[in-house]
Amino acid sequence: MNRPTLTTERLVLTPVDLADLEDLQALWADADFTRHITGRPMTTEEVWFRLLRDLGQWGVRGYGSWTIRLIEGGAYVGNVSILDHRRLIDPPIDDPELGWGLAPAFQGRGFAKEALEAALAWADAHLRAARTLCMISPDNLASVRLAERVGYRPYRRTTYRDEPVQLFERPGGANWARTEREPGAG
């Protein structure tokens, strides 16, 4: 199984690993970080099962989560993922779903965009998907703006686990390159 490492100007994205557990537990215990995602900090048990799920995605689907670290010094920044969650949501999500999250100390410095662009470039080159999707709380304005900056467009408001969410879509592969060149796109 090919679990690629991605490198950007400032970041290295490595497939999630058991060695990331301590950093993940600290991230998911942060109430500011989880506010728009789970609505509450996660327990160590929940983080463990999340890590197992993320590890399994690589073996089952051939894509998954990357741990984001600074190239200089190796500090843990967060993660970016391409996942198949099989969410119980209407409309169903049948395409690869992207998600991302950065520790609050690293937000607002362009790291999320840099990591997301690397993951999307990998997805465009390696997945045979007509589109990728993401699901964002309408209150998470920073993530909404980031999604739109990298080419996602809103297509449906719905609810997930009794909370309002906005679904976004972005054409994949060659479709993305064509959309990017259209006047007013991006």
Please give the structural blueprint:
Blueprint: E1 6-7, E2 11-15, H1 21-28, H2 31-34, H3 44-61, E3 65-70, E4 76-83, E5 97-102, H4 111-126, E6 131-136, H5 141-149, E7 153-160, E8 163-171, H6 173-181
Antiparallel strand pairs: 1-2, 2-3, 3-4, 4-5, 6-8, 7-8
Characteristic terms for this protein:
single chain; Aminopeptidase; 186 residues; 27% strand; globular; three-stranded antiparallel β-sheet; alpha+beta; five-stranded antiparallel β-sheet
Cα shape:
globular
Order of helices and strands: EEHHHEEEHEHEEH
Q: What is the CATH architecture annotation?
A: 3-Layer(aba) Sandwich
Question: Any idea what the radius of gyration is?
Answer: 16 Å
- Return the CATH topology: Aminopeptidase
- The CA-CA distance between the termini, in Å, is 33 Å
Q: For the record, what CATH class applies?
A: Alpha Beta
Mean pLDDT: 88
Separate helix tally: 6
Uncertain regions spanning at least 5 consecutive residues? 176-186
How much strand?
25-35%
Oligomer: single chain
What spatial order of strands do you see in the largest sheet?
1-2-3-4-5
GO molecular function, one term: acyltransferase activity, transferring groups other than amino-acyl groups
Organism: Brevundimonas aurantiaca
Keywords: Transferase
Protein name: RimJ/RimL family protein N-acetyltransferase
